[in-house]
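Run log // design_07
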């Protein structure tokens, strides 16, 4: 892992230099601080091009805990001309690494408002070939330990006894599948918890609309799109208090933020199922922030870099 950024830089250098010679590159925009961001900064320094780096989540929430990677991440953030964070929580973490606060721009993710919008729940279930009766819960995420599906199933087991027709669908694929299937069997939930695998992105809107509540029980997140996509469909969310999730669920009218324990998730789910939610209001509030809005804000940051360039900059110092 220590050499990933250097190898990425070396592997892309000739292509980027060729592009820069044919038409001068105004700036480089790199997403994920390491290794992508460091490779971009190395390109920028070699070719005298300003670089912006965007932090997405794991690159700041996890990678700085690696002793050899932490100084590389800190150097990248300090050397980049601008830094973008998808949540205020990520900005705070980068300030903790020594990055000046005024260098970091918080630009939260948007949502595809055309795809993720409310529809009749019965029609959503029909399109998914699901039973029209009973209550449905959905959780979307790779089947990996940090997503917390083992804890989610245990929490569901505590709530399921009070709701005889409640079903949980966990959408995703990954190495934890067998362990999840084993737990489902041990708890006797074979008819209540389903693992349909990874579903196409366009299908997720139907799943969210079919659900009473969606859940996310991660141990770390940046700005999880599945939360905003659920809200855009009008479906409230129960999610753990990590990363940018409290910023998304900033109002109790949108969902419930819980402690990352079986009891916390179970209590939050029970509360969510007992409430009457204004699904139209949830959708309207969330769908207002589109990806076009996000693009405009990112473009503004990039434009600042272009304006700050030296007018007599040599486009490619390696070109003789």
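design_07 sequence
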């Amino acid at each position: 892992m220590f050499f990933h950024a250097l190898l990425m830089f070396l592997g892309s250098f000739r292509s980027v230099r060729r592009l820069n010679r044919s038409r001068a590159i105004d700036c480089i925009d790199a997403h994920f601080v390491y290794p992508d961001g460091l490779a971009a900064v190395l390109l920028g320094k070699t070719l005298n091009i300003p670089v912006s780096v965007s932090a997405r989540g794991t690159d700041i929430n996890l990678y700085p805990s690696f002793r050899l990677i932490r100084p590389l991440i800190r150097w990248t953030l300090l050397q980049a001309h601008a830094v973008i964070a998808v949540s205020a929580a990520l900005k705070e973490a980068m300030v903790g690494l020594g990055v000046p606060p005024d260098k970091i721009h918080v630009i939260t993710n948007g949502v595809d408002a055309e795809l993720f919008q409310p529809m009749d729940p019965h029609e959503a279930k029909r399109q998914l070939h699901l039973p029209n009766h009973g209550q449905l819960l959905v959780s979307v995420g790779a089947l990996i330990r940090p997503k917390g599906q083992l804890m989610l199933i245990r929490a569901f087991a505590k709530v399921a006894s009070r709701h005889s027709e409640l079903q949980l669908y966990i959408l995703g694929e990954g190495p934890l599948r067998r362990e999840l299937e084993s737990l489902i069997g041990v708890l006797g939930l074979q008819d209540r918890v389903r693992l349909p695998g990874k579903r196409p992105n366009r299908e997720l809107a139907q799943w969210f609309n079919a659900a009473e509540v969606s859940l996310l029980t991660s141990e770390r997140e940046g700005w999880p799109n599945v939360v905003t996509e659920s809200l855009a469909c009008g479906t409230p969310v129960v999610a753990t208090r990590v990363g940018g999730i409290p910023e998304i669920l900033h109002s109790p009218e949108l969902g419930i933020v819980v402690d990352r324990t079986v009891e916390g998730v179970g209590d939050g789910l029970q509360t969510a199922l007992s409430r009457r939610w204004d699904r139209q209001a949830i959708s309207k509030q969330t769908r207002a922030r589109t990806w076009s809005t996000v693009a405009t804000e990112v473009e503004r940051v990039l434009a600042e870099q272009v304006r700050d360039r030296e007018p007599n900059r040599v486009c490619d110092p390696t070109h003789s």
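The first strand starts at residue 28 and ends at 31.
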